[in-house]
Write a structure and sequence with these properties.
The protein is mainly alpha-helical. The protein has helices at about 1-10, 55-65, 95-100, 105-115, 125-130, 145-160, 165-175, and strands at about 15, 25, 85-90, 120-125. A hairpin with a 5-residue loop joins β1 and β2.
Length: about 180
């Protein structure tokens, strides 16, 4: 079904079947030559992506990109106007989920990933907290209208950053987008 998803929704063709039936981005690049010493032996820690994630400027740019002509910031997962006091910025592909790969990246690479505007979307604080570090097979927007665009963006971020996508997330994308065999 991956071919149908690629054809129907222009999912990056860089996604390919990987080891153990999971999906990964192909071709796989080797780990950076200068990996942070000991990071892969450590559990995920937000500070490994440099302090506040995302940065204030990335947060502001994400909000600006989601602001309509009336000056209202629109929630990526609901399409509703956001209360400026309750805006949170979600990483579509969570930093914690990326850790098995990004642990081998340099701090600069991790910081770039954590502040990539493709991966950042404003949402209501409680929605971001409920999504947390979950992937498309574990969480989907309550508003089904937004489920397909969420999973497609998740796949685009994964392809751009060469991050793994497990088969259950591909199945969730196919289901959310109405792709059948």
């Amino acid at each position: 079904m991956m071919a149908s998803l690629v054809a129907k929704f222009a999912v990056p063709a860089a996604l390919a079947v990987g080891a153990a039936g999971g999906y990964t981005v192909a071709p796989a690049d080797p780990a950076p030559a200068v990996a942070p010493a000991g990071d892969c032996a450590q559990p995920y820690d937000r500070t490994k992506f440099f302090g506040t994630v995302p940065t204030k400027s990335a947060r502001e740019a994400s909000i600006k990109a989601a602001t309509n002509e009336a000056g209202e910031t629109i929630d990526f997962y609901t399409g509703l106007k956001l209360d400026p006091k309750r805006i949170d910025i979600d990483h579509i592909y969570a930093a914690a989920t990326s850790w098995p790969v990004t642990c081998a990246w340099t701090r600069a690479e991790r910081r770039s990933f954590a502040n990539d505007l493709l991966n950042l979307r404003p949402t209501e604080l409680s929605i971001n907290r409920s999504k947390s570090d979950q992937t498309p097979s574990e969480w989907s927007p309550a508003n089904r209208e937004f489920a397909c665009r969420y999973v497609l963006l998740y796949l685009r971020v994964a392809a751009k950053w060469k991050l793994p996508v497990v088969e259950t997330d591909i199945e969730a994308a196919e289901s959310a987008c109405g792709v059948t065999q």
